[in-house]
Amino acid sequence: MAELKLELPQGTLDLLILRTLTLGPEHGWAISERIQQISKKVLQVQQGSLYPALHRLERRGWIKARWSTSENNRRAKYYELTRAGRKQLEVEESAWRKLAAAIAQVLETA
Q: Residue 46 in 3-state DSSP?
């Protein structure tokens, strides 16, 4: 069976990044790896999408970045949630759950 390539709806990547960062600061590659791992490889975040999203979240004040040394001894930019980011995550998660429940309801009854 061919592997299905799913496109994330607008704004979903931001939600996934914010949620991933609740586990602690992480560099970009590790964020994409964690999303891929947790989703059992269904969600594969390309660098061309990831880094613009990280920069957007940083501009909005939802995450902050600092340079540090990664586990393989390379300089890497580590991202972490801010207080505003935690609040935004609550809003986004609530909206997503409401949307997903409504879609599920339509799929089950239509």
A: coil
